[in-house]
What we know:
Blueprint: H1 2-29, H2 32-83, H3 86-110, H4 113-137, H5 140-168, E1 206-218, E2 223-235, H6 238-246, H7 248-258, H8 270-290, E3 297-307
Antiparallel strand pairs: 1-2, 2-3
Helix pairs in contact: 7-8
Amino acid sequence: MNLLIRIEIFIDNILLKLAELSLILFKLVIPQKLRKKYFQLEERTQKWFQEKREKIQHKKQQLIARALEIKKQADGKIKIAKNYDYKSEITNLRVKALALSFQLKAAIKQKTPLEFLKFVSNQLILPLAGLKVFFAKLSPSKFLAGFIGFSVITLSSLGIYFESNKIQKPSSQNRQPASIDERAIKEVPSGGIRKRPEYYKKDEKQIEFTHVKMPIYYQSINEIHNLDIDFSLQLSSRFVKRYLDTNEHKLRDHMLMTMEPIVPEFPLEKEGKQIIRDKVLFETNEFLRKNEVEGSAEEAKIIYILGT
């Protein structure tokens, strides 16, 4: 281990010697003019760095002195605040207030109303004079800015107050709901509440189903075939329509499982079509009830019937 350290020190010494020799050779090889320029540049650079260091050191000392001075002033103000006899000041204020109250009582008892008003005005002169001096010191621009700010705050406060009173007051009985179009409503004869017409957004509550299977029975060949039925439903709300759109396959399965086979001639008769409409309406409402959907199918219409 000691041998390695000695070798490392030896190599470092050699490298230092080589660096010194290379610098000497560099100075010998460089022309006189370039060497002079080099030394001048080196001297100016060292001088510039020295000046910067001195300036930084001077600024640092100034900042430290300023910080110490601020700390000294703060300590002095804290000491004054701690030693301030605020209790005696409060006592003096109380004594002055009591003296003023006694003077007012004496003035009320001994003086005429005119003399009493004169006494009160004399007592108010000092505060008013202070306000006069304060406003006299203000420049026109500051006075104008203060007046505008005071006016804005006052008007805003009044607006908020009146608007809050309007909100708190009960609305008029004659006021109509804002969401109802006057052209789409009708008057109730009794003069009561207006209501929407029966056709309000009727198209948005309709849905159609195509190629719904219905079993039919052929007695002659003893086989069951299907009828394809297209029908539409008038629903009670748009929510029911959205639900049936999403779960159409479930309604089709429900129809297929609950419909009993019928004879082929039955759907072609007027009575048969009415029974099929009633059956479709009933099974749709049963499907909605089973799935706990709030709403119902109000009307069913047969659009097309095709035997397959």
